[in-house]
Amino acid sequence: MDSSARSGAGGTTAYSNPRAWIVAGVAVAGVIVLAEAARRRRRWLRGKSTTPPPDSGAFCDSLELTPPPQAPPPAARQQLSDLTFAVSHNFEIEGHVAGFGNPDWKKTHTASSRTAVAVTNLLKQGATCVGRTVMDELGFGVTGENLHCGTPINPASPSVVPGGSCSGSAVAVSAHLVDFALGTDTTGDLRIPASFCGVLCFRPSHGVVSALGTLPNSQSLDTIGWLARDPHILHRVGDVLLPAAAGGLKGKKQLVFADDCFESLKVPNHKTVDVIESAVHALPGYQPSKHINIGQYIISNVPSLKEFCEPSTKLQEGNSALKALCTVMLLLQRYEFKANHEDWVNTVKPKLGLEITTRVLQAVNFRDDNIKSLYIVRSEWRSALKNLLKDTGILVLPTIAGYPLKRNSKQRLSSEFEDKMYAFVSIAALSGCCQATVPLGNHNDHPISLSFVAAHGSDKFLLRAILEMYSTIQEQVVSASKMFFAPPFYAEK
Q1: Which residue has the higher pLDDT, 408 or 64?
Q2: How far apart are CA 381 and CA 332, in angstroms?
């Protein structure tokens, strides 16, 4: 090497500069940390170590995408400056292979020539992407368990699964590894892990955020959503990703409680419905709340759904309608997954986890000549929900109806649990409406959450409402917990 290249002013070598040594030391330390994390992950996956990796098992790809330099004044400051985020394994990153949660997929596909549009838009606004996260294979699971990558540790309740399919994204946020994370939500893939891991989630209206650069599961249901711990960050990400006209309406809001959904919940009303009622009562700009039987509303306003309903009595009609709604959602998912990936599945015969194998086989073996009816139900349900909520209504319902499975449990999700879970998530998924999931503390040592649904296109209206309600809701959560755990009063004798 030329001596001038090695020397600074006065001929002193650059390596004698203390700052250079510090930078070099930090770089070496970073490599050592990453290597140690990778080694601990390998031992953890093989069952040779009980110590989880430093990233809680959330990440499958380490990378760093930095934002472009901030333009000098008078240019506006980048909206997401100094925030970090992660993305699920089905997001394309230029020069990397999107693995879709499965090594056989990764082996049979080439590196991407582009970066997902949503990721690019976040980078342009100052956010830094620090990696891709673990997900259930092919976007099909609900537990967050991955045969190949392991199960990320749920920071909110380490003894249970984190939920899926976007388990790693939820864990990365819950564990304070990133400020927010992206994932795709098809049939609850973000909302379920958000509920299990005790974080906020926003599932936008179908089609309002570009899905270019993500691997599809079912394009009529797939949406790009995001998770955060802070409602302000949830809102800021929405300002970047949502179009300017995505529901900027103002007016007196009205909450509409789906009473029949709450009846099947294992959490008492004083921790759910009463918390929300008390919170909005203390806020300006809200009409008195409304209570409905959403199942009865569906059966009365979605006529094409009747062919999917099981025979039932008048009293059972509502439950039958909710179950039929989730049946249509799952049939639509299977039909579109088959159209997208049947050839790859049959050619490659990938190694998949047991639960994922069952779901993939259901999809690739799907036979139905009446596909058009699925899309008709979808259209009717979106219209019916718009008529119910109009511009300023917000449907309130549980995110899921039960508790997550224990980690490494040999049990599988019961059909009853799956039916209720899918019934709740299908309300937004099949209609394409936007939904926000908000944590509400704990019950029986498990995180609980509620969801808020607004009409298709009312995304910014819903995000603004969550931002307005959040702190008051959390105050009511604390009050409800104190009331619940207060010692009994004994009158003096």
Answers
A1: 64
A2: 14
In DSSP notation, 181-242 reads: EEEEESSSTTHHHHHHHT-EEEEPPTTSS--TTB--S-TTT-EEEEEESSHHHHHHHHHHHS
**Rounded to 5 degrees, what are φ and ψ at 347?**
-80, -50
35/422 Cα distance (integer angstroms) = 40
Alpha carbon distances (Å) from 471 to 198, 257, 277:
15, 20, 14
- Cα–Cα distance for residue pair 318/189, rounded to 1 Å: 25
One-letter identity of residue 409: S
- Give the Cα separation of 285 and 155 in Å (integer): 36
Is the separation of the CB atoms in 318 and 295 below 8 Å? yes
Report the C-alpha gap between 88 and 131 in whole angstroms.
Answer: 9
> 458 near 476, Cβ under 8 Å?
no
pTM above 0.70, yes or no: yes
- DSSP bridge partners of 314: none
Q: Which residues pair with 62 in a beta bridge?
A: 131
Q: How far apart are the first and last CA of the chain?
A: 94
Would you call 311 exposed, middle or buried from its count of C-beta atoms within 10 A (0-12, 13-18, 19+)? exposed
Using CA atoms, how far apart are residues 11 and 419, in angstroms rounded to an integer?
75
Helix H or strand E encompassing 167: helix 167-174
For the chain, give the percent of residues with pLDDT over 70: 85
Question: Is 90 exceeded by the pLDDT of residue 54?
Answer: no
Looking at residues 6-35, what average pLDDT do you find?
36
pLDDT recorded at residue 7: 35
At 95-147, the pLDDT tens digits run 999 999 999 999 999 999 999 999 999 999 999 999 999 999 999 999 999 99
486 has pLDDT over 90: no
DSSP 8-state code for residue 160: B
Q: At 239, phi and psi to the nearest 5? A: -60, -30
Q: Quick check: 342 and 366 in contact, CB under 8 A?
A: no
Q: Is 481 helix (H, G, I), strand (E, B) or coil?
A: helix
Res 403: pLDDT:
82
Pairwise CA distance, residues 484 & 479, whole Å: 9
The span from the CA of 425 to the CA of 164, in Å, is: 13
